Amino acid sequence: QVQLAESGGGLVQAGGSLRLSCAASGRTFSNYAMGWFRQAPGKEREFLAAIIRGGGSQLYADSVKGRFTISRDNAKNTAYLQMDSLKPADTAVYYCAADPKLHTLVVATTDKDTDPEIWGQGTQVTVSS
Questions:
Q1: Which secondary-structure segment (H or E) carries 103?
Q2: In DSSP terms, which residues pair with 78 in a beta bridge?
Q3: Which helix (H) or strand (E) holds 13?
Q4: If DSSP codes are grouped into helix, strand and coil, which group holds residue 88?
Q5: Which of 10, 79, 98, 104 has the most CB within a 10 Å radius?
Q6: 3-class DSSP state for residue 90?
C-alpha cells in the first residue's frame, strides 16, 4: 500500500508562490489518482485539485483555478501542487490524498460516504498580508 508524505509548506507573503510535494512510498503510485485538499482553522476540508493516474488530465476547484497547478512524476513517485499568487485566505493545512478513482477524490468533501483510500499527514501553509 502507498503511504504519503507532504512537504514544502511554510510562510510566504501575499502574492508569493510555494510548491508542495507529496512523496509516495511503495511501488504502486501510478495506480492511484492524486488529489490536494486543505483545511483552515474552523472550516471544513476543501477539495483543491486532482490528477489522473497518468497525469494527462486535471480538475480544479474554482477557488484555485488559474492560480494552482497539480502535476505528478510517476518515475519519482511524487505529486506536486504549484501555488502562485497566494492570498492570506489560502492559509491552511494542505493534504494530499490518493485513490484508485479520480471521482472519489473530487467528491470526497461533498459525499460523506466517500473517503480517499490514503491521506498524508498535512503541511502548514501560512500566507501573510
A1: helix 102-107
A2: 23, 73
A3: strand 10-13
A4: helix
A5: 79
A6: helix
Separation of alpha carbons 52 and 107, rounded Å = 14
Which pLDDT tens digit goes with each residue over 75-122? 999 999 999 999 999 999 999 999 999 999 999 999 888 899 999 999
Residue 3 to residues 11, 62, 95, 98: CA-CA distances in angstroms?
26, 28, 13, 9
- How far, in Å, are 21, 56, 102 from residue 114 at the CA level? 24, 24, 12
**What CA–CA distance (Å, rounded) separates 108 from 62?**
16
Q: Find where cell 510566504 sits.
A: 12
Query: Counting beta carbons within 10 angstroms of the beta carbon of residue 121, is it exposed (0 to 12), middle (13 to 18) or buried (19 or more)?
Result: exposed
Q: Which amino acid is residue 115, in one-letter code?
A: D
pLDDT digit string (tens) for 30-68? Answer: 999 999 999 999 999 999 999 999 989 999 999 999 999
